[in-house]
Structures are given as structure tokens and as C-alpha cells.
Amino acid sequence: MSFELPQEVEETRKRARDFALREFTKELIEHFDETEEYPNEIRKKVFDAGFITIENPWNMLVTMEEFCRVDPGIGLSTLASVFGSEILLLYGTDEQKEKYLYPTLKGEKISAVAVTEPGAGSDVAGISSRIEKTEKGWMLNGHKMFITNGTVADHYYLLARSAPPPSREKRHHGLTLAIVERRWNGVNPVKLKGKLGMRATDTAEITFENVAVPNENIVGEEGKGFYIIMTFFNISRVYVAAQSVGTAQGILDLLLEYLAEKPASFREMEYVQFALAEISALIETARNITYKAATKVFSFNPDPALTSMAKYYAAEIANQVANTAFKIIGIEASGSKLEKLYRDAKITEIWEGTSEIEKLVISRMILKKIQEVK
Fold first, then answer.
1. Does the pTM of the predicted model rise above 0.90?
2. Which segments of the chain does DSSP mark as H helices, in order?
């Protein structure tokens, strides 16, 4: 097994690092964190620099890591402007790709994934939004919550119930995926403000009232939307893991900068040395499991258990590293950039499946293997 990434990918990593250090200035980071504006101009620069491409997902992965190492809020906002594109790449018709996917990949449009609801976050099968057949197409009614890119996206990849579940054990049946445009009548997004972290990302609550959806905007097979979304989560979770790894590395960078300004006697304290060794090892372990999961996903052979391990573990490590750094630096950390990274790290334990959900996926896959052996 090779632990080295191709030269092209490492060159992209260096370019991404240089770009983030140059463009994500201290003033802009503070501006977007305070105003919660969407960094659209930086997004355009990211596209112009050629960082956003799903043709080579490894380039996107290391870019996510390096961008979030400098600032998770701006970094994720710019790269997530193509959020959900893999759905159409895998399941979309030629017409859907022409109308929605290709313009998004050129930076002309912004996409979003609308799954979470007030009463159904990690429980995807529990969503209550309805999409029903009509004489001319479909009619959508529902309520979505915490939707990334909600007020800036041109279209959403939206999951809704099209038929009652046949049984409690099969609640995931009867869910259909549709492309819904933000500017259609009946679509009402409202920006959510005052978030703990990741304030540069656009997050919205969206209501859908008698929204007419044409037949050609249904993605994949009717009633099979749950499986499409689960396939997408297997992909998106490795990017969240990379986000976590980058955030953790950025925190370590700040800690090292802080220690460099302290007397040698402080750096030589046993507690400080042990902490540095531990968090460095944890970050490297998180990076390795993330890359292993990505190798599976990017070779079209995903391992759901491994993907969930990467997402869960990397998120936990990002938060653990933030806590440890705060303890070493003390009260000074509350007024530094570390305070922001500390806030930004928390969401990695929640979106794209909470840590608890990831543990359930892992345990179910392990138990499934036991049954197969029997």
C-alpha cells in the first residue's frame, strides 16, 4: 500500500495552501464571521483558480483540507457551492446534467442538498415533506431546516415522501428525489443567523408551499430517493472528514505559533510535550483513515463503515485538538483566532450524520459481517 498521493495532487495541495493564505486574510475572515455574509467574490476566485472539479476528487479533497486549515468557514463556503453535484453525476439524465450540473461546475450556478427537517435530521427516513403526482407533474409541500446554501443556491436536490412507507421497518421506502429551483413560486428560504460557528456558510430554513415540480426534474427512480441520498452521503462524508482534518491541523498550526513565542522552559514542560505528541499523532491518524476511506469512495468501491469511521473519528479529533489547545494557551485563546476555529470545529460532529449516527452505521456493518460468516 502506498501512503503517498500522486504528484499532481500534492501540487494542488500546495497551490490550495498558498491561495488560502493569500486570499483568506485576517480582515476577511473576521468580516464574514461577524456579518455572516456569503463570500461570493472569493468563490469566484476559487473557480477561476481551477480548484473546483469533481473529475479529480482527490484534488477537491486536499483543497478542502488546506482551505479549512486556514479558515473552515470561507473554505467550505467556496467549495460547497457545488454541493450535491455527485447526485446528478451518478443518477441524472443528460437533460438534467445539461441544465443544472454543468453550469454549476462552471461556477455559473450554486447547488444545495435539502434533506434535513425540523423533526428529521439524522433520521432521514422520518422526513414529512410531501411530493405528490398531479396531472401536469408533481406538487411539493414541506419544510426544510439547516440547509447549506439555502438562500444563495439556484437549485436544491430535495428529498420528499411520495408514498406512505409499507411498514415501520421500511420507512425508507417511498422517498423521491427532485430538483427544485429556489426562484420558483412557493419556495421561501429564510437565512439563519447567529450560528455558533461556520458563519460564512449560508444556512437557511425553507418552506415549500404548493410548488409545482415538472416530471423531468425527478432524479432517478420514483420512491428510491433514500438510496440515492445514502450513496451521496458516502461521498460527502469523506469531504467532511477532510474538513475536520484541516481544521485540526490549523489549530495545531496556531498552537505551534503560540509556543514559538514562549520561553523554552514553557515548551519543555512535560504536559505541553505530551499534548503536542498526542494531538499530532491523532491528526495524522485521522488523515490516514480519511484518505483510506476516500480511496474506496473514489475508486467506486465505497465502504460505508470505513466512511463513517473517517467522518466520526476526524470530527472527534478536531474537537479534541481544539480543547487541548485551549487548555495549553489558557485565557489568551478566548481572544485569538483559536476561538473561532474552536467554534467552527463543533459542526463537524453534527452535519452529514452526527457522531452517534456514524457509530450506528459502523456497528451495523460490523454485525452484518458476523451474520454473513454464520
1. yes
2. 7-23, 26-35, 40-48, 57-70, 72-79, 85-91, 94-96, 102-105, 225-260, 264-267, 270-298, 304-329, 337-346, 355-373
Determine which one of 65, 86, 117, 352 is catalytic. 352
Residue 211 lies in a domain: yes
Q: Decide if 95 is inside a domain.
A: no
Q: Does residue 29 surpass a pLDDT of 70? A: yes
Between CA 68 and CA 13 the distance in angstroms is: 12
Respond yes or no: is residue 181 known to be catalytic: no
Q: How many degrees, rounded to 5, is the angle at CA 172 between CA 180 and CA 230?
A: 65
Q: Which domain holds residue 155?
A: 111-223
**pLDDT number for residue 332:** 84
* Long-range Cβ pairs for the range 169-174 (8 Å, 24+): 171/125, 171/126, 172/124, 172/125, 172/226, 172/227, 173/223, 173/226, 174/223
Grid cell of 118 as nine digits? 425540523
Q: Do residues 236 and 315 both lie within one domain? A: yes
- CB distance 142 to 160 below 8 Å: yes
